[in-house]
Each structure stands twice: as C-alpha cells, then as structure tokens.
Write a structure and sequence with these properties.
Blueprint (H helix, E strand, L loop, with lengths): L11 H15 L12 E6 L5 H12 L3 E5 L13 H9 L4 E6 L4 H8 L4 E6 L5 H14 L6 E5 L6 H10 L5 E5 L8 H9 L3 E4 L3 H4 L5 E4 L10 H7 L18 E3 L20 H6 L1 H13 L1
Helix pairs in contact: 1-5, 1-11, 2-11, 3-4, 5-6, 5-11
The protein binds N-carbamoyl-L-aspartate.
Length: about 300
C-alpha cells in the first residue's frame, strides 16, 4: 500500500515515471475499466473546485465511483468525532481516500489510521502533492524541467502549493527566485532543507527584476483563510499583479502558472497571451490524478 502524503517522500525517478504515465493517459492510452468496481472516498474539509472535481473525474474515467463528504457540517466530525475514527470507518467503505483538511499533518495522521491508501489533497499550510505533479507536468509540456529558473510569487508562507513545488524542484537543479510580501517568506525549515539539498534560492524585492530572469512564473493567491485576522490579510493582499505590460520584458518562452483560484494576482488580459498556461494546468489535473489513482488503487 502506498500513500501519497508529501512530495518529499518520492524521488525523481518516481515522479518522472508518474508524469510519463500521465502523458500516455492524456494520449488516450488507458483502460477505462481499470478501476471498475473500486470506490474512492473524497473527504474535503475545506473548499475546493479543481482538486475535488478532477479527482472525481479521474476515478470516473477509470471506471470507478466516488463517495463524497462535502463539508465538516455534513459529517460526524461536526458531532465531535475524531479524524482518526472517521478515517477508520471510511477505510471500510472505500478502496482509497483523498483528503483535504485545514490542519497541517492531517493527511499523514489519516494515513496512520487508514487500512487503504490515502492521498493528501492539501493539509493546511503543509503540502499539496497532486497539485505539484500537475504543475511539473505542465512545465514539462513547454520545456525540460531540469535547470529551469522559476519564480515563486505571492504567499510563500501559507501556500502549500509553493511548498510542495519547491521541494519537488530540488530534484531538477532548478533555481528558485522568490518574491513575497514581508512576513510571507518560505518557512525557514523548508528553505534550509532546500539549501542543504544544493538548491539556489534568490530572494527578490521587485517584480520587474524577476520577470526577465525566469522561465516560469508561478503565481499564488494570498491564503486569506490562514491569517489570524482580516486586517493582517488586507495589509499584504494585492501586493503583486501580473499584467501584459510587465510581461513585455519576459523571455519569449516564459510560462505563467497559477494553481487557481486567482483573486487579483493576474490581470485577465494575460489570459489571452501565449505565456498564460494556468487553464491548461488545471485541465492537466485529470490525467495526472488518473495516473496517481492507478498507482495507489490498482
Ligand atoms: C490551491 C490549494 O488549495 O492549496 N488550490 C488548488 O488546489 N488548486 C491553491 C489555493 O487555494 O490558493
């Protein structure tokens, strides 16, 4: 049994082979009954559009079905049941569990009580491995990942997609350029670990300095729900906005990615530019999550 909790648990060979598999799936090379009769439990205790629907689409395309709990209020956690008990019970109803939870470490905890594979679909400000795999898949569609210069922009403190992606990129000799509002820097434990792995991390203060330097701009939303109060959120929200004017200095092959949802970090006029890849990125969630489900459920 293989859980997928943190991207740091996997090596480059595993990641590359999963992305190769997703490529074959995208080219329609898969058995649409491969997971026939299998059930995926989708336990989302935080809002989601893309992750939940693309996991549900993925299991359906492979012939399986899903059981969904849409909110904390709708299940027995609202009656005081522990996550451990919920997971013990759900393990008896499904062949794998996808979980999103507001607390960091929740998916790891779930994996300790589950008798079926657990996939982390986001644990608080922790990790988001399925997003990272589709981010890498999208980069690879435009350029080799090896040796890229990538900018992580936005909320690097609470943004789990940025944490997971930065970890994965340490396998690919990427150079990490960072730009964030003061106080929203990458957690020190993570940046130290990345530096120990030999990753070069270059902090920037100005968006105009970063754009001409990089191959990939990875833009993130300030994670409002993780702030202690709304005043501290409004102090740092709307710090950066990617516009067509700013991108006039970009390398021709630069791609703009965003895990979505966006608030105001990317001007909608950018959507029409060849640099914009964020809607393709969200579409890539389906083949990548199909490959993940086949990996843990077959
Ligand atoms: C991200 C998440 O939930 O961490 N969304 C997603 O899964 N595509 C990013 C975000 O909410 O900002």
């Amino acid at each position: 049994m293989r859980h997928i909790i943190s991207i740091g648990d996997f090596d480059r060979e595993w990641i590359d082979s999963l992305l190769d598999h997703a490529d074959r799936i995208d080219g329609k090379q898969y058995d649409s009954h491969a997971l026939g009769g299998k059930i995926l439990a989708v336990l989302f205790f935080e809002p989601s559009t893309r992750t939940r629907l693309s996991f549900e689409s993925a299991i359906a395309r492979l012939g399986g079905t899903s059981l969904t709990v849409g909110s904390v209020e709708a299940c027995s956690i609202a009656k005081g049941e522990t996550l451990a008990d919920t997971i013990r019970v759900v393990s008896g109803y499904a062949d794998a569990i996808v979980i999103r939870h507001p607390k960091e470490g929740a998916a790891r905890l779930a994996s300790e009580f589950s008798t079926v594979p657990v996939i982390n679909a986001g644990d608080g400000a922790g990790q988001h491995p399925s997003q990272t795999l589709l981010d890498l898949y999208t980069i690879r569609q435009s350029m080799p990942i090896e040796g890229i210069d990538i900018a992580l922009i936005g909320d690097l403190r609470y943004g789990r997609t940025a944490h997971s992606l930065a970890s994965a990129l340490s396998h690919y000799n990427a150079r990490l350029h960072t730009l964030c509002p003061r106080g929203l820097e990458l957690p020190e434990t993570l940046s130290t670990r990345l530096a120990e792995k030999g990753m070069e991390i270059i902090p920037h203060e100005n968006i105009t300095d970063i754009i001409p330097e990089v191959d990939v701009l990875y833009v993130t939303r300030v994670q409002r729900e993780r702030f202690p109060d709304s005043a501290s959120y409004f102090n740092v929200s709307s710090s950066y906005r990617i516009t067509p004017e700013l991108l006039s200095d970009a390398k021709k092959h630069l791609i703009v990615l965003h895990p979505l949802p966006r608030v105001d970090e990317i001007d909608p006029r950018v959507d029409e530019m060849p640099h914009a890849k964020y809607f393709e990125q969200s579409r890539n969630g389906v083949p990548v999550r199909m490959a993940m489900l086949l990996q843990v459920m077959q």
